[in-house]
Request: fold
Amino acid sequence: MFDQVAKRYDLTNIAMTFGLDAVWRRATTRAVAPQPGERILDLAAGTCRSSASLARSGAQVVAADFSPGMLAEGRRRYGDVRGLSFVEADATALPFDDGEFDAVTMSYGLRNVNDPKKALAELARVTRPGGRIVINEFSTPPNALFRRLYRFYNDRVLPRVARIVGSNGDAYDYLNESIRAWPDQRALAAWIGEAGWSDVAYHNLSFGIVALHRARRRTA
Reply:
């Protein structure tokens, strides 16, 4: 499914979010706070826009994704970015050594993993003690009125926009279903803590349409 939408994925996201995806991506980069020389894993990298942004800070960034089509599109666009490499990877069985990364991040991908708790534990395994995690994921707006408006948009408007702009409307029906089934901010924070992370905190973006979760790899 993701292979099929790769070429128009970014354009569709811009249309569906009215450009907010760029705001969310910048917030994620700031939260990761990449430093020159650090080794960073961007899991579920998709077309690698965020990966390229992280690499331009001087960090060594691995863009990893389960979809070879997405990675091929990312390599086509950003293959010349210094410090950026591309790896096809399963989030529940990462092909990296223990403690290999200073920071790990995942945007809008955890929701698509068959076993998200196992993926969070794998991310902890490959992060050095004290290292950082940033998860950006669709979430639950806390305001009841806004939440109803958001659900209406997802149910009625988003599928039509996706069919006009995107290359696979059925894929975006799945997107809506997966967002509806996903746990809220507090539940995800609890999952992160259970997976070996400490100092878990989250910050809502755009009234809670998405939420940034941050934590540190436990040192003991």
The first helix runs from residue 2 to 5. The two ends are 40 Å apart (CA to CA).
